Amino acid sequence: TIRGDGELAIAQMHSALEILPNDTKLRQKLAELALRLNKLEVAEQEFRTILNVKPDDPSSLLGLARVFFRKARIEGQYPPGWIELKDKLQDVIERQSLSVVGKIKDDYQNMQVKIQLAEAEKALTQKQYRDAGRLFRDVINRSKENAFELLTLAEQAYNDGDLKSAELAYSYAREIPEVAPRAEQGMSKLSSQRKEAKRQIRLGDATEKKLPDVAEDHYKQALIADPQSADAYYNLFILYLKERKDKLEKTIEYGSTFLEASEDTDNRRQQVEKQLFKLKERLRKEKSK
Fold first, then answer.
1. Residues 6+ apart with CB under 8 A from 268
2. What is the model's pLDDT at position 95?
3. Tell me, what DSSP letter sits at residue 268?
4. Which stretches of the chain are DSSP H helices?
5. Measured between alpha carbons, how far is 154 from 136 in angstroms, rounded to an integer?
6. Nearest Cα to 139, choosing from 160, 118, 163?
7. I want to staple 186 with a disulfide (CB 3.0 to 4.6 A). Which of 11, 100, 170, 191 is the partner?
């Protein structure tokens, strides 16, 4: 695991669990490693196995919730059992946040990190990019001396579609000689994703006037490459304003998400905010009829 060979580590853990199937600590490590590597089915199975024995285990509840958040972002809907899990998860977060009595400091801090990552992933599914970024950055800044943890957080952010947070973690890791080559590889991967997003946006811009449906598809392809592309959200917002006047709620959604994804210095924000005010007022009037 430390040297970054996650596939081999998972295989070895599976072999170990065949000998010691009741070793929940090892199973927890396996589940969390699988989650870090975005092997969601493996992670879900292992977290569920632990919860069958320990239904209120906070680490496993948080881990399963994070699996659900990622699946919801990818598939557009939460897996079965989400409502029940959400209620348990909320109880865990409240209990962990209220008191540290009886907890070892390191264990408590570890749990707080898991809670923050779960909250970040939840925010990403709801396209609350600013909240997600704040939570990720806080965890990354507290881990910037830990080489392996930085790479882990970078991969998690990347898999969740938060390229900005991934870039921050990789930039810290790049300053640590033992993991610098892997951090450079990660930065290169981010660069490729962003280049692909920009390419799709250029294709969309070239077809927007004559073939708006084709342009829309290109802009959505850009969001697959970079889920927080402010340019793609802005172009979709403008396209819907011009060509999808009957899709009022979707237009508002694209505009609102642009505000979440864009920097405060982006000079397009004022224009979008004005348009959104008018659209929301129009929607309110339509619903009141």
1. 234, 258, 262
2. 65
3. T
4. 6-19, 24-36, 40-53, 58-75, 82-98, 105-125, 129-142, 147-159, 163-173, 180-207, 212-225, 230-243, 248-261, 269-288
5. 9
6. 118
7. 170
